[in-house]
Amino acid sequence: MCGLLSVVAVLGAAGCGAPAERQDAAAAAGVAFEAAITSQDRARACELLAPQTRQQLEQDERKGCPTALASQELPTTHGIRKVEAYGRQAMVRMDGDTLFLSLFTAGWKVVAAGCTPRSDQPYHCTIKGA
Questions:
Q1: What is the pTM of this model?
Q2: What is the distance in angstroms between the CA of the first residue and the CA of the last residue of the chain?
Q3: Radius of gyration over alpha carbons of the chain, in Å?
Q4: CATH architecture group of domain 2-128
Q5: Which of 116, 126, 127 is nearest to 46 (CA)?
Q6: Domain boundaries, the chain
Q7: What is the 8-class DSSP label of residue 78?
């Protein structure tokens, strides 16, 4: 686990740069978010949410982020299938979930989670910003 955290920290610092670097950094942020959800470290998961997403979750649930996050039914994931990064936006597809991320000054943050594709419509996401 310590090795994974080291890789996540190194990749998380590489938010800018070449497309492969952006994809790796977005993937690392996605893995960190999913690991926090799996281990029920909701405080850490909340830190990895984009500010507007966190605010929307708290507003919708009328609770602080960690408590609000506990009531969400986020899927379990099993590894990354594909990462796409375009400029400051990224999509991380995992077995079981799709995350959408944006690049902020502090690094990649999750703007939507628990997302499933819908035929001829935008993804449906359990957690998303306004």
A1: 0.83
A2: 34
A3: 14
A4: Roll (3.10)
A5: 127
A6: 2-128
A7: -
